């Protein structure tokens, strides 16, 4: 008996997604499979980018419930085809096949039916075999880097000329092209105006000429102000360090006389500490990290510094934070403590050095390590062990787009020997201090550190009564709660009991792969994957990390770093060891050179760019890549979107009256994953 199947096929809208190759399909079902059918309508250009094409396929027999569509691509010039989704109907029956990946020229690809299900719910051996074969192919595409190549760091994808990045992971473009293109265009825009700059470079003055073709960071007019300096601790590029302290740090000699007039009238240091009004920024992680040091062919030595600095902040009577004291080292006998009562140039220099220390720590630890590189093992374990119909694959896939591509780009372009970081960051250079810094950060890190509520509580700043103005905290926590409800709802729908998770062989392989090659088990909150609550916790942390946390530590880079005196990523002189020796002419000699400034502006702009196909947590019109079709999961997502809309409105209302807005964690501006 002949059966007619109607196929509706959507090609991605991305540039180059369409194909002129001949595309064929085989329908594979529980009763067998159809013969191959070429999908070609007369006088019609099939499979153009953004098109939905409908085809009728006649099968001589009913192949039963569809399990997969086997698409063949005959190949040719520019023949790769980016398939978004296919839908099939036969009478009253209908099936959905979400894919969102490439069908390469000359290849045959199985697209599995899209109902979310665990391996044990596969209805027949043919379906189980299709899942296994898909994963076998994926493991060949996503091999782990040898352990010795990632020693001291999270596991990563192994790439070479023979084993390139899978095309499914490649960039599909930022607003101005790839991030390398954004860098190049920024450099070109600045260089157009370089002839206008004086030959004697003064980074404190001439920096403004860099922005004749670019937007000027909003903090530029106020960067020297103490309140602006303190504001960046709670809503800047790295708002993860401020910590309430009960006593002065060891080795930091500071007396009431030193801060006379800075504390409130009648307040002593002891009283301020007791009343929870003193906070610490501490970059002790830089201690013993080698700094840039290189001798050129002419025997001229270049050195850079980013000291293991620390800073005390004081909450004044107006409940505003202001810097109280800065020490550019750990030795109380050698490293003086600077305060606002010191000479103007001493105090300004101390703040600049502190920001440099923060910047080096931020780039390698808070940003590169604690978002980019700790996410990669989860991408790898997911792609290698979870087939498309698995609910955890469906939950995570959109949050992993482009992560492997940007990580590899960072390794090659920024972190490798001779890379961009060698050109302008203090910890770069022949001794690879930046990599040692990343490894040191990883040694100290556990996944639970990325949970915002525990982190804030550990630092003593969870309570608004202690630290009233902390926009990062106030925006991050509601987003965590919304994510936890959504992720937990999805997982508990598919895993009603812990036994269901323990019996999921694919997830147990995922865990084994993750802990053997990606992250040691002591970095994770549990030693075995046996409780649904643990999985909810882990995956909520992962999704929060790649979306909310990455947005917080990434998308303010242009605003924070581009006006280089605010936060230079290297200092060209050793920190001052005595007070009262600096003058106005010294500061330009301390901060980055013209070429270093150029790189810092360009990198800051590139890494703050959004993609032209960016999907945000709260995406206008919904997420474009729809993986789930279950009504219960869609209801969970609608609830999630309602919470995000409410939070967006809260952020907008707060910023309407804010002197310095903080919008980076508005849900409609948070990309779903690490895309740059």
TrEMBL record:
Q: Name one GO molecular function term.
A: oxidoreductase activity, acting on single donors with incorporation of molecular oxygen, incorporation of two atoms of oxygen
Q: Does the keyword Methyltransferase apply?
A: no
**Domain PLAT positions:** 3-117
The superkingdom listed in its UniProt entry is: Bacteria
Q: Which InterPro entries match?
A: LipOase, LipOase_C, LipOase_C_sf, PLAT/LH2_dom, PLAT/LH2_dom_sf
Q: Which GO terms describe its biological process?
A: lipid oxidation
Keyword tags: Lipid metabolism, Metal-binding, Oxidoreductase
Task: Decide whether keyword Iron-sulfur is in the record.
Answer: no
**Segments forming domain Lipoxygenase:** 114-676
Q: Transmembrane ranges?
A: none
> Which PANTHER family does the UniProt entry name for this protein?
LIPOXYGENASE (PTHR11771)
Q: What is this protein called?
A: Arachidonate 5-lipoxygenase
């Amino acid at each position: 008996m002949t059966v007619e199947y109607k196929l509706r096929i959507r090609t991605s809208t991305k540039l180059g997604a369409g194909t002129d190759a001949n595309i064929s399909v085989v329908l594979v079902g529980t009763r067998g499979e159809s013969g191959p059918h070429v999908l070609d309508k007369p006088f019609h250009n099939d499979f153009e980018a953004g098109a939905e094409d409908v085809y009728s396929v006649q099968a001589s027999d009913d192949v039963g419930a569809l399990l997969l569509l086997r698409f063949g691509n005959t190949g040719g010039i520019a023949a790769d085809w980016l398939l978004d989704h296919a839908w099939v109907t036969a009478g009253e029956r209908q099936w959905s096949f979400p894919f969102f990946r490439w069908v390469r020229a000359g290849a045959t690809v199985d697209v599995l039916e899209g109902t979310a299900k665990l391996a044990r719910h596969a209805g027949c051996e043919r379906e189980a075999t299709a899942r296994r074969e898909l994963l076998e192919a994926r493991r060949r595409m996503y091999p782990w880097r040898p352990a010795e190549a990632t020693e001291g760091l999270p596991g990563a994808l192994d790439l070479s000329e023979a084993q390139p990045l899978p095309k499914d992971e490649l960039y599909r473009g930022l607003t101005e092209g790839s991030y390398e293109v954004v860098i190049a265009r920024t450099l070109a825009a600045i260089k157009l105006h370089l002839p206008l700059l004086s030959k004697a470079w003064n980074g404190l003055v001439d920096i403004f000429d860099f922005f004749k073709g670019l937007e000027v960071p909003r903090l530029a007019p106020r960067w020297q102000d103490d309140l602006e300096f303190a504001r960046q601790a709670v809503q800047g590029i790295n708002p993860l360090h401020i910590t309430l302290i009960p006593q002065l740090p060891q080795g930091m000699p500071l007396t009431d006389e030193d801060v006379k007039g800075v504390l409130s009238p009648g307040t002593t240091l002891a009283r301020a500490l007791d009343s929870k009004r003193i906070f610490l920024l501490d970059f002790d992680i830089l201690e013993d990290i080698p700094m840039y040091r290189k001798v050129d062919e002419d025997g001229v030595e270049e050195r850079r510094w980013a000291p293991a600095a620390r800073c005390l902040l004081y909450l004044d009577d107006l409940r505003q934070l202001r810097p109280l004291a800065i020490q550019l080292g750990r030795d109380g006998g050698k490293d003086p403590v600077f305060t606002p009562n010191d000479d103007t140039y001493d105090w300004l220099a101390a703040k600049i050095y502190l920001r440099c220390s923060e910047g080096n720590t931020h780039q390698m630890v808070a940003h590169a390590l604690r978002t980019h590189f700790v996410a990669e093992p989860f991408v790898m374990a997911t792609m290698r062990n979870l087939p498309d119909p698995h609910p955890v694959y469906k939950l995570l896939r959109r949050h992993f787009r482009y992560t492997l591509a940007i990580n590899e780009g960072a390794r090659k372009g920024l972190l490798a020997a001779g890379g961009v970081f060698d050109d302008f960051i203090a910890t770069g250079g022949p001794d690879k201090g930046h990599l040692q810094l990343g490894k040191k950060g990883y040694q100290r890190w556990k996944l639970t550190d990325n949970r915002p509520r525990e982190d804030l509580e550990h630092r003593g700043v969870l309570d608004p009564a202690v630290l009233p103005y902390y926009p990062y905290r106030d925006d991050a926590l509601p987003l965590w709660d919304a994510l936890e409800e959504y992720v937990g709802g999805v997982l508990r729908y598919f895993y009603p009991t812990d036994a269901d998770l323990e019996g999921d062989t694919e997830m147990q392989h995922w865990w084994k792969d993750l802990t053997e090659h990606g992250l040691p088990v002591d970095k994770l909150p549990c030693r075995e994957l046996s409780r649904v609550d643990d999985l909810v916790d882990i995956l909520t942390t992962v999704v929060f990390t790649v979306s909310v946390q990455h947005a917080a530590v990434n998308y303010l880079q242009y605003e924070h770093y581009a006006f280089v005196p605010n936060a230079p990523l290297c200092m060209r002189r050793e920190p001052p060891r005595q007070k009262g020796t600096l003058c106005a002419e010294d500061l330009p000699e301390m901060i980055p050179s013209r070429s270093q400034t150029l790189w810092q502006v360009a990198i800051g702009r590139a890494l703050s760019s959004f993609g032209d196909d960016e999907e945000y947590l709260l995406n206008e019109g919904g997420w474009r890549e729809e993986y789930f079709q279950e009504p219960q999961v869609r209801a969970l997502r609608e609830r999630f979107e309602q919470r995000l809309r409410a939070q967006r409105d809260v952020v907008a209302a707060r910023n309407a009256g804010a002197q310095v807005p903080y919008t980076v964690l508005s849900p409609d501006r948070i990309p779903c994953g690490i895309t740059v």
